[in-house]
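## tool: complex_structure
## caller: assistant
## args:
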Amino acid sequence: MTSASSHLTPCLRHSAACAAGLLVLVAGHASAQTAGPAPLEVPARTVPVPNTVSPEMQRIIGAPLRQNWNIQPKTGEEWKGVAETGAAGTIKNIPGMLERLKVKVERTTIDGVRAFVVTPETIRPENRNSLLIHMHGGCYVLNPGEAGLPEAIFMAGFGGFKVISVDYRMPPEAYFPAALDDGMTVWRALVKTTDPKNIAIFGTSAGGALTLEMVLRAKQEGLPLPAAIAPGTPMSDTTKTGDTFYTNELLDNVLVSRDGFCDAGAKVYANGQDLKDPMLSPVYGDMQGFPPTILTSGTRDLLLSNTVRVHRKLRQAGVEAVLQVYEGQSHAHYIRDDTASETKEVFGEIASFFDKHLGK
Amino acid sequence: MTSASSHLTPCLRHSAACAAGLLVLVAGHASAQTAGPAPLEVPARTVPVPNTVSPEMQRIIGAPLRQNWNIQPKTGEEWKGVAETGAAGTIKNIPGMLERLKVKVERTTIDGVRAFVVTPETIRPENRNSLLIHMHGGCYVLNPGEAGLPEAIFMAGFGGFKVISVDYRMPPEAYFPAALDDGMTVWRALVKTTDPKNIAIFGTSAGGALTLEMVLRAKQEGLPLPAAIAPGTPMSDTTKTGDTFYTNELLDNVLVSRDGFCDAGAKVYANGQDLKDPMLSPVYGDMQGFPPTILTSGTRDLLLSNTVRVHRKLRQAGVEAVLQVYEGQSHAHYIRDDTASETKEVFGEIASFFDKHLGK
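## result:
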């Protein structure tokens, strides 16, 4: 602590000797380190709500940390109660979303897997043959049923695409790899009737991870790949590895901490499986041959590192991969409020990317 | 403070009532706020050096905060002393860089403006007609002469391009808009002999801002525009506006704080000019018609917000603009050590982008 606080001592004399110290870091990058880099001690700070985002986004960013972010349910049964309570709150907002975005939703099952068909009033002519698959988020344990729909509704409404949203099994109904298996069942079924060149997969958080996992699995099984994917702030590493797990801790008002509820949920879903398995932490998967990918995150996102790590890994594999990072946003803020201009911007970017790559 | 710390209270009972609170944020985004969003109180934290980057980058990220980051020289004369001391340290590393990257440097003047011609031993055949203009960084007051060259050498060496690095005037020799004027003099001279379709402009920090400012100025003056630009972590807003000025404060070990030396340097250069002038804060400029742009930043960068804000503004203006954000890096870490794999990756990405857009 002594050495960290001494770095904070201001240079009170504007002398040459004082100035000389200023650029030591520039001049000799390695000279300051002999015994391995020490952790950084960051003092307490007051962080204002940014004025560089819309008023709607300011409300989302300015909300207090999620209540009870550090609950740690240990079983699927406990999570079911948490999930149902949360779902009730989300579901009551759905009719308003459907009305504002002119989208309708129907339940279906696809080879036994529960799903929703989400259709905009107007499918853009160039999207008439396109189909999107949506994998919802929620740490593999939250957002059952209609509660998983907001992002699918935003994509259908803002993008003018038909979307199949997969209501995959979650604990306690089933554990790893059930969510992925359900996604793959839907994938296998859809590619029988729709050219995979016309299909994209997207999702946020656990849904972003499942999007990546589905491509990894399709590669393994020799199945066709989608034409494009859009993993939003993917839970690409469930081993608590990634710099922004630390730098954005207690700044991200959604996930809040690497030791929070989301980590607890992923662990229950994993059910003892090694968390480094690429089907739980897809950043460790082989991304050679991946389809064009658009990634979305925010500057306060606890998973910003796990988004940019996937971006870098895709680029290193020679994949066309683009990154969108939004000012001030914590984890998945862009699927909160369809009236925020940033929400429309996020889904507009993804839609343009899909336009560019589908049907080619 | 009381209300902020109450949000941190763990939910100790795994009851339904406790669980019910968990998803309030998901369910009703605006319900928690009635009197306008409050700032976030972030407690002190210990942030380890990430293990998700190369050992070379770990040394750079793990270095202590820049010594005397908060000096506040108030005049050009004072800055000159600081700049010369810093330059001496940087310049002694240049011969090694030139040797490792097989690059040579010659002084020149272009219509009276000091510059360097930076030439790789091997110019790639597809780059034979291409020319890059480099605007160095240093808060408009640092890195005079050869001290501004490392980034130009990295670009020439890793990218296989011929580079003209502009040694623009700085305080106390001249003040705003001298740096920009010198860049424009070089631009006007070069487009007389080289097709602007074969020229790109790049630079980091103040050099990233100058890159953007040169395009704004060329638009204003009806001059041709470059084929592409690469502003790295641009000082696009010198008014201390941008969320990561707060969220990454004391995490970024280079700039450290919005109230640090760099802010002081920009103010001396501005010499009384309104800092919101787009020629000092280009994020406020009109970006319609900009050439394809590749932006670079890092997750700990104090200017991450000012990089992503430029990216968003370019995209909103319909410009082809791509964003690269590197794990764990503070401001301009990618121009520190040419032996770090991330450095090669950054300049490789920029070179590929230039390849795609030059000569078209």
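## assistant note: Residues 70-357 of chain A form a domain with the Rossmann fold fold (CATH 3.40.50.1820). The longest helix of chain A spans residues 341-357. Handing back to user.
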